[in-house]
């Protein structure tokens, strides 16, 4: 980040300094003046840094307590000592949790104090007349700017920092929709008056008690929970400032991020998730959030949310929520619902048909729509249902506590009868659409995506017919979805061949195909759809196009730090590749798979030999198929093989293969292409390891400068931390330990913002531990090393070599603090892990250190 306007803040501090010093005798006037300029500086900060991530932290540090006044005194002090000033800055910024933000704020404050000191001590005007004139001259324009900024701030507060206090008796015209809206809209709603009254009563009572609304609406599938929630959503819309609707999909994090995609925010999944949580908490009880179709898994983030929550689930409520069980509709309401969709005739037979449905809302609607679509007379329809054994009543009564597979099986048997009566098995167009929808999750798909993914015409009659007959739901916003019970029924009653879903699979593969410079968050929006299809066809049929889907799923999991899941999907792709000779003859597919496996093993950090194996296989495959593979693809294989040799500390081999990769990439790509920069980055690392520090510095400095220009609009891009990490080691070797720490902290800050659960954070924490130890900052060294241990234990496990290294380095720090007993304990822990992994060279090194400690103790005694 460049601080182009830092001079404005420095000038303001100088002005405050002069006035404060001059008016020392008049304490009240001095305090009043200081207060005024504090406000001015706040507005300056808003103007300059208001859109930056560090804004809140910078304002808090400068404006908190008497920090500004103390800063002024330091700047104006003739005995100004930089070390004292640095200690002061580090002290007042300790409360900033994010390392990157803390580093940036420190950097700004250091610049401010240095420059302000110079200017204050160079003043030639002892009476400060010139400065006073400048202040007087600019005061009017400053006030105008402040007024203008105040209006802008008030507008922003309505979106980002709402402070409106909700009132019980206040009614808004319409609540602000903070999500993408309520998508599972129904065309007709009947009954549930008692449910709505009771839920509203719970809401009103909770608000009166000034508590958070936490309602868990539960019941068996198909009973109408979603429709009820939507009705309550409409009832509450206008009674509260903010309202949102989230369609739950696999996990809370993905669901929230995908529902709040309207927020233009850079970063990856974890960063977006944290922003959404912070945003909801900033709204507090001014907002209510609906979460539909929740899977019932405990998530403490739900408990942490300060906004009101109403969710629906098949699973009974947890203790932290008020449970509300959804029962069946009243008979009269069922009849009204049936007659809304079935209009051919009206007689007493309707009553018998409704009894057969068990008053299950989904069944009533489907039975009515099928009868209407086929133009069936009631008597004939009833006899056909009876003859085929359709009767859900007993299942509904006996399955209230059954939300799993057994309920799906039981209901599916009867929905299969409706499927048979609907006479759509022989309609190829209808079956194609139904089968494709049945392998997707219960999430809305907009009209354009349905046409694209299924390759349908704009006016596809089969799609509209299926909506009319109830097999597919369509919201008022033209988002299509299939109820899980119907999906299960379709899958059970038709032989879904993978070829029939080929177009869908290929389109989903394209949706999640990550490219080099992209932010993978955008691709996670389609992850639930791709994952649902991949899991359905897992080990069912073997086709080349499903292998591509598995490989791209593996890559998405890898970039999100979920290496085990990525490894599993890559191995599923390998299983298919190995099991079919025809696939095995596909060299481009093998290139993608082998390189994906090599990259995942590299990130796992305990599979270095396996990483080399896969990269080696990619290189051999490329050599055998030069024309098909092409030089540019082969460069990826050479690069990954070089990375493997770097991890194995074989520097000559790594340099050899990386230079090949770089030469190829420079031949075909622009010099600022990320693949060119990654090859240069690795060469810089090897140069450093082989003692060519100046060459390493020259190359990596160029890489850093190019990357910072590339990502100037996205300072948290995930490509930056690796570059900063390598650069910091080069700076350390050059003797600039403070700059080395600075770049390590930048890497940490970006990774923490992107994904607080990134296993690679432990690498940076460990490096910061050792760098601070070298700088004699023992307290900080210990804190960083403890963080490294914690994250490696969590994500790498108790027997990973990285954890052994963490323990060994922690023992070094304990030696400095004089905690000898603990030092020996951690050396022993490290040794045990290396023994487990048969790393005898490291075991011998640790034993030597232990012997040295024990011998020294003998000499002392």
Concise structural overview:
This protein is mainly α and 861 residues long.
- SS class: mainly alpha
Distance between the termini: 56 Å
Query: Quick one: how many beta strands?
Result: 9
Taking pLDDT < 50 over at least 5 consecutive residues as the criterion, the unreliable ranges are: 1-5, 21-26, 123-139, 157-172
Tag the structure with descriptive keywords.
mainly alpha, 42 helices, 6-stranded parallel β-sheet, 861 residues, single chain, 3-stranded antiparallel β-sheet
Describe this structure in words.
This protein has 861 residues and is mostly helical. The chain contains 42 helices and nine strands. A six-stranded parallel β-sheet has the order 1-3-4-5-2-6, with helices on both faces.
Give the helices and strands, then pairings.
Layout: H1 6-22, H2 27-49, H3 55-63, H4 67-76, H5 82-92, H6 99-121, H7 129-157, E1 176-177, H8 193-208, E2 214-218, H9 225-236, E3 242-247, H10 252-259, H11 269-283, E4 287-294, H12 300-304, E5 308-313, E6 322-325, H13 331-341, H14 349-356, H15 361-374, H16 378-388, H17 393-398, H18 405-421, H19 428-438, E7 445-446, H20 447-454, H21 461-468, E8 473-474, E9 479-481, H22 484-493, H23 502-511, H24 521-524, H25 527-537, H26 544-559, H27 563-579, H28 581-584, H29 587-604, H30 608-624, H31 626-629, H32 631-647, H33 651-668, H34 674-689, H35 693-710, H36 720-733, H37 737-754, H38 761-774, H39 778-795, H40 801-817, H41 820-836, H42 840-860
Parallel strand pairs: 1-3, 2-5, 2-6, 3-4, 4-5
Antiparallel strand pairs: 7-9, 8-9
